[in-house]
Amino acid sequence: MKKLHIVGGGAIGSLVAAGAQKNGIGNACYPRNIVAMPTEALWQDGGSTMLQPPFNTPTVLDNSDVLVFPLKVYQLQQAITQWLPYLENTPTIVLLHNGMGGLETARSLLPDDYPILLATTSHGALKETTSSGKIQVRHTGLGATQIGLAKATRRLPATLSALTLTYPLQANAIALLERALPPVHYQANILTSLWTKLSINAVINPLTALNNMQNKRIAEAAFAETRHAICHEFTSVANAYGYDFNEDDVHEKVLAVAKATGENYSSMHQDVLYGRPTEIDAINGILWKWQRKRVSPFPRTPFW
User: Fold this and answer.
1) Cα end-to-end distance, the chain, whole Å
2) Which CATH class for the 191-294 domain?
3) Cβ neighbours of residue 151 under 8 Å, at least 6 residues apart?
4) Catalytic site residue 293?
5) Of 131, 137, 240, 276, which has the highest C-beta tally within 10 A?
6) In this model, does residue 279 exceed pLDDT 60?
């Protein structure tokens, strides 16, 4: 039986697990800290789902299973290394995180031909602790997940039905995620979607974290200069790497997302608030790293 195996106990991973549980899909969670794992998910329609008890240690997975890493980039090396002895049957791996650099980490640890899907989601999720000490995950914003094969070739199947013919196990993995937390959209060129998400995170995440505010406030005039500077930096780097982005379009997209998720707090804001390491190196940091290689003279933002 195909199952979703979810590494970590973060908000998005817990939401995927709850969606799987709600829709009758076999699932298992493997958090670093079992006591910090949510026990219940609260949905936007007012419903709730109890999560299954998590597991302490990994287990050998079947070829048809799906192993999801909804982790921060800096957490991936340790997490994948821990799972290496249990991947003998080559279950499909899904990397689901903000920022860039996760694929490079995975490729350095896994065989060259290991089946990997890259994904990014706009669903909003927030872990909360009630006054009684109960840990919950709340679905704070309806979104969508973009997913595709981590392949260097440009001759990838253009549609999900075509993918089913050539990469059936990966197509099944996408279908499983679609059942758990819809909608999930297959993208033949997933890297474009990841660059788009990077453009949004590069503005919203650091601004909300540095100024201790909700997403909607980045649209205020006080942050206009910094918004435009980051959008300019992003566009310069993306274009240098062969991705066609327009600076004004990027800025408008950032504002649209900030408005749509206005009441939410970014993941980086939450990390700073609770004293956790952030993803700044995989978001603004990686832009700075890449622009030094290909953009001359390269622009500078207040973060670097």
Assistant:
1) 48
2) mainly alpha
3) none
4) no
5) 137
6) yes
